[in-house]
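Q: Given only this backbone (389 positions), what sequence would you predict?
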């Protein structure tokens, strides 16, 4: 982290410790109710062992759109994380292997024994900032990923869908050999050989480790850090409408910030909420450590990521807010989750029906579509760009 960022982080920490934070402007943010609100950083930090270069990002982009990475050569990363839908998709549970179509139009092919992907596809936008603290500090080597925190960086995250049966691997290859299979495929494509050798400055550069680094570098470039809320936090008092400002106040008053805090509006912690099961899955998803807990999602770019929650069980934001309103009574919405297991923070949440529209209006101020939406015209494998969509 740069020296200036360290100084700012130290300054904010001291103010928090001394309890000096009130409703006042501060350089790069606003200090309200003992909580600091700052815009997303303008620059992205990369891990020391995977510095970002334009060439690496370009290679990662080709790989991201190339179905050569899947067992049946029919699914790409972009199949379920498409720029048209904010690098997510408008469907509750993803369809990976043996599917056709894009987003809400995607269906399994006629002869199918592949299950739905276990959970809702989260947007990759701003995943570079996962784990960011209220001070703005974050560590890309330890960035929490997935709904159950099973990966701790974009590099670690990048390979897991390739290894997962229903996402990209399919029937033909075991988890033990799929990565070696993909590496051999890439090594047989001269264009990829040239790209990898140029980016990693070595011969025999195509390895699973470098594959992950290239994809992570591209994903780290996908940021949307200039929403109207970011502009407001940076000092432009006119960036938000009156309704959005009201919604922000009601959002805080309702104690939503107990979990949705920091520049990404997530504490990146596991919480047990008792979200209803998605019957399409066909079995009970018991979440983190089989305790029905799931990670707090970001609230950024919500307009692109419906339906909501870890299993996409709520079709719109009103459904989500109504769910939290009902939870304030202490009743679990999931028969598998006992009332005593619900996160105690839920007792503090107080959302009123009359406050829902202003809060949703505030959510809209977190949208920002100024991210890379360009799609390669072709990929080195010459397979359909984005998979079978």
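A: Predicted residues:
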């Amino acid at each position: 982290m740069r020296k200036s960022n360290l100084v700012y982080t130290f300054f904010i920490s001291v103010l928090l410790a001394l309890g000096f934070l009130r409703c006042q402007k501060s350089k790069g943010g606003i200090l309200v109710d003992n909580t600091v609100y700052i815009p997303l950083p303008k620059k992205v930090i990369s891990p020391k062992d995977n510095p970002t270069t334009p060439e690496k990002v370009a290679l990662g982009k080709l790989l991201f759109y190339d179905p050569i990475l899947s067992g049946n050569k029919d699914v790409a990363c972009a199949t379920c994380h498409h720029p048209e839908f904010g690098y997510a998709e408008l469907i509750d549970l993803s369809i990976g292997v043996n599917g056709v179509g894009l987003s809400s139009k995607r269906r399994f092919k006629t002869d199918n024994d592949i299950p739905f992907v276990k959970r809702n596809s989260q947007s990759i936008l701003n995943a570079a900032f996962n784990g960011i603290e209220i001070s703005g500090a974050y560590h890309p080597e330890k960035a929490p990923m997935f709904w159950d925190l099973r990966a701790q960086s974009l590099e670690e995250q990048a390979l897991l869908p390739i290894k997962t049966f229903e996402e990209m691997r399919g029937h033909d290859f075991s988890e033990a050999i799929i990565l070696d299979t993909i590496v051999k495929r890439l090594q047989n494509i001269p264009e990829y050989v040239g790209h990898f050798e140029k980016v990693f400055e070595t011969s025999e550069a195509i390895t699973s480790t470098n594959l992950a680094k290239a994809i992570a570098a591209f994903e780290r470039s996908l940021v949307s850090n200039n929403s109207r809320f970011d502009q407001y936090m940076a000092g432009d008092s006119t960036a938000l409408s009156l309704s959005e400002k009201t919604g922000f106040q009601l959002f805080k008053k309702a104690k939503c910030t107990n979990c949705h805090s920091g520049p990404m509006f997530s504490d990146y912690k596991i919480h047990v909420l008792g979200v209803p099961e998605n019957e399409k899955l066909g079995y009970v998803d018991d979440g983190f450590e089989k305790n029905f807990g799931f990670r707090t999602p970001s609230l950024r770019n919500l307009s692109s990521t419906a339906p909501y929650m870890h299993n996409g069980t709520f079709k719109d934001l009103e459904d989500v807010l109504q769910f939290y309103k009902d939870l304030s009574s202490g009743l679990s919405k999931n028969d598998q989750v006992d009332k005593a297991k619900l996160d105690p923070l839920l007792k503090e949440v107080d959302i009123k029906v009359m406050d829902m529209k202003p809060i949703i209006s505030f959510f809209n101020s977190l949208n920002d579509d100024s991210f890379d939406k360009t799609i390669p015209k072709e990929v080195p494998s010459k397979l359909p760009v984005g998979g079978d969509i």
